[in-house]
Amino acid sequence: MVKIYALCVHLIYSGIVQRSREELKAIRETNPGLKPTLAIIQEILRLNEDSRVHGIFLHLPQSFLSKSVRNAIKPQKDVDGSHFEVFTKMFVAAVVICQHVVRSSRRWIQEQQYQPWRLRPLKLQPLSPVPSDIEISRAQTPKPISQLAQEIGLLPEELEAYGNTKAKVHLSLLNRLQHQPNGKYVLVAGITPTPLGEGKSTVTIGLVQALSAHLKLNSFACLRQPSQGPTFGVKGKTAYSLSLNFFPIQFNLHLTGDIHAITAANNLVAAAIDARILHEATQSDRALYSRLVPSVNGVRCFSPIQMARLQRLGINKSDPSDLTPEEIRAFVRLDLDPEKVTWQRVVDTNDRFLRKITVGQANTEKGHARQTQFDIAVASEIMAILALTDGLGDMRARLGRMVVGSSRNGQPITADDLGVTGALAVLMKDAIKPTLMQTLEGTPVFVHAGPFANIAHGNSSVLADKLALKLVGEEGYVVTEAGFGADIGMEKFFNIKCRTSGLTPDVVVLVATVRALKMHGGGPNVTAGVPLPKEYINEVKA
């Protein structure tokens, strides 16, 4: 339904405009800075930018209907002819008002239907021989990300800019476009690759640029965010720097900080595990209870996550003072076995000397040392959760169910048991928003999540795909990529991502290269960092 707001000044001003002149005079004497007209204009400007408001009707005393107030309304939202551009007189006939309401409603309905984007592609200047990535990047000038967002139908309040060339997109877009039919869903996968990769990302970007910039079809690419590990490793830049980004160094490094957020959340869990093991080994039940349920102004109370733990333990009590010593012991002691901790710390760098370490060697840890290791950040279970979640509530629930180890009697211990789920959700609240970027031709790309296919499911996020499918409309195309080869990336796309999202692709594009076919057909091994054997460079005539 189209919402028409009868605009009166809110809060104290709504009362002020209805009072007598004597009352208004008395109020102004006590508050000389009071300016109702300014407040009215500020409220009009706020409603102008509110996408939920589709029309504004001024129902105010004549003394407040100054020219500046009437002309503050956007012409598109003026339904009673107050704006000079729409109608110069305030008091219009009821029929004219209804006509404006109908027009405003019709305009809003048309905006919700599919329509081609007004995308202005950037012109490419092919160079020969092909220059380096950084030269390609510097040769092209990107359009402002706010301009790209406007071209594809995003509202200003749905965009959270990170500089001038990238931005986060709010999930509220899904609510606004919930009745919009999805576009066509295209999956790009590859045959079993060589160690050098076979070009799935290049095909994905090339396909989207062809559809958007040349065929004038609404098209979106959805890609994984690369890890810094392979970027600085032998394989080199994992990112699609030649065809995706104007600043490949930026794209391959921090981007909008999603991987840093995952690192912080993951290592918070690791710190909580070791702290819990130490405190349980060195303190009594009563001391632990006082730490977990502290007295504030003489009152103890359980937090919601603690109440959930009590319910899992079968303890149906809400007053901390009612627990028996046995119940207190069951509540405070996870009894984590240090040898059965499965949660590792992470860092987004290939640092081989962190693959096996000993922690807890400081004197303050009282001899509670144990062997552990660092994994690469994108191998964290939190990354897999980010790629599969469909909202903040779902993400928080999934984070709480993560198993971090086992107790000495074999019971699984979760993040909820540690009591860190809320903190993890707060750390990840911005990372859940997909990042909007652009190709060299100025077409839109969502970059979000980057789980590995050999340990997780190897696909970009469900949320990015869902947002893109709504934005392109039913005649548009969303091209998403399954990482690694078809044997794991594509299979996990169908078996895991599709089952989680409820989406199914309309077509699959399979990337196959002569190099990969030769190697898997009995050719010499292809090794990263080593020149290709001559069999892959020269073709042998039959």
UniProtKB/TrEMBL annotation:
<comment type="pathway">
    <text>One-carbon metabolism; tetrahydrofolate interconversion.</text>
</comment>
<dbReference type="GO" id="GO:0005524">
    <property type="term" value="F:ATP binding"/>
</dbReference>
<keyword id="KW-0547">Nucleotide-binding</keyword>
<keyword id="KW-0436">Ligase</keyword>
<keyword id="KW-0067">ATP-binding</keyword>
<dbReference type="InterPro" id="IPR000559">
    <property type="entry name" value="Formate_THF_ligase"/>
</dbReference>
<dbReference type="GO" id="GO:0004329">
    <property type="term" value="F:formate-tetrahydrofolate ligase activity"/>
</dbReference>
<dbReference type="InterPro" id="IPR020628">
    <property type="entry name" value="Formate_THF_ligase_CS"/>
</dbReference>
<dbReference type="InterPro" id="IPR027417">
    <property type="entry name" value="P-loop_NTPase"/>
</dbReference>
<comment type="similarity">
    <text>In the N-terminal section; belongs to the tetrahydrofolate dehydrogenase/cyclohydrolase family.</text>
</comment>
<dbReference type="Pfam" id="PF01268">
    <property type="entry name" value="FTHFS"/>
</dbReference>
<dbReference type="GO" id="GO:0035999">
    <property type="term" value="P:tetrahydrofolate interconversion"/>
</dbReference>
<protein>
    <recommendedName>
        <fullName>formate--tetrahydrofolate ligase</fullName>
        <ecNumber>6.3.4.3</ecNumber>
    </recommendedName>
</protein>
<keyword id="KW-0554">One-carbon metabolism</keyword>
<dbReference type="InterPro" id="IPR046346">
    <property type="entry name" value="Aminoacid_DH-like_N_sf"/>
</dbReference>
<comment type="similarity">
    <text>In the C-terminal section; belongs to the formate--tetrahydrofolate ligase family.</text>
</comment>
